[in-house]
Amino acid sequence: MDQKANPPRSRYTRRSTAEQVTLGIDLSGKTVLITGCNSGLGFETARVLASRGARIIGAARTLEKAQTAARKIDGEVVPVACELSELDSVAACADGVSSMNQPLDVVICNAGIMALPELQQKYGLEMQFLTNHLGHFVLVNRLLDRVKQAPAGRIVMVSSLGHYTSVPGGINFNNLSGEKNYVPFTFYGQSKLANLLMSNELSRKLRGSNATSNAIHPGIIMTPLMRNIGSLRSTLASLASWPVSRSVEQGAATQCYVATSPGLEGFSGHYFADCNPARMSAHAQNAELAVRLWKVSEELAADYL
Ligand SMILES: NC(=O)c1ccc[n+]([C@@H]2O[C@H](COP(=O)([O-])OP(=O)(O)OC[C@H]3O[C@@H](n4cnc5c(N)ncnc54)[C@H](OP(=O)(O)O)[C@@H]3O)[C@@H](O)[C@H]2O)c1
Fold it and tell me: For the domain with range 18-304, which CATH number is right: 3.30.720.120, 3.40.50.720, 3.40.50.2000, 3.40.190.10?
């Protein structure tokens, strides 16, 4: 399938909900893997796509969390454990999903953490880069064959407007440990830029296949993601009726739209917000940066690919 250039504008807005943007879409027979299915946007996405008939593979840090989420959802949800900051866990999750021996119609890389107040590291890497980017990089790469087996497999990377506020240069390959100058939001921005760059490079790699990859910004939504932002949290909470903030039901709309809209078949390498094409930052459009990030990620995760 040829990748198409300009995604159409939809009739949906920032106020549209995940239920509204999937109304009338029959996902029977389709399998959708969602990371972070136990909370916030991931839970709402799992709930709504299950209600449209999809078989959901719901990933959470632990099997117990995934099982608890699955019990709250009407429809078929297969709970799996995937601790994204433990690459052994990610590899085991991917192998378990792969052994289910079925095509993956959609993978939504939704799980994430934001603005850890103190520098945390594992494998010598800053934790947001590891969790938000590298864990998903391993998961997607190990499952790519299954996505390609679907008639029109879709990968959806849940990025953020925060990708605009990354470190100087976009990705600081000389400071992936975060040791030199750790700034919580800037490193969140770097990890979310990495989500977008990964989607763009993956889209190039998927040319000639039936599969696509796109990235999204869900909006600003008060979820547990905000747990680390201290006084800013109460400011945001007091702005709950602020025009830029939205409900969880509305926040899950863009990823559900990009994952399922029949009108987006064949579109790849794009960035969406408010269920419509959006402008990505200059760093996100930098193909050389995307290639370099892909190569470095392959080196960092070599034992797990
Ligand atoms: N909310 C916003 O305003 C906003 C704005 C822009 C982008 N986003 C993006 O939207 C996505 C979903 O966020 P949300 O708002 O729904 O936040 P949330 O309610 O905190 O959900 C995040 C999910 O990610 C999971 N997770 C965190 N660390 C993990 C790890 N190491 N391994 C596996 N799973 C892990 C969480 O599991 P636990 O519950 O076990 O911690 C949870 O299920 C994130 O990628 C975020 O960057 C959100």
Answer: 3.40.50.720
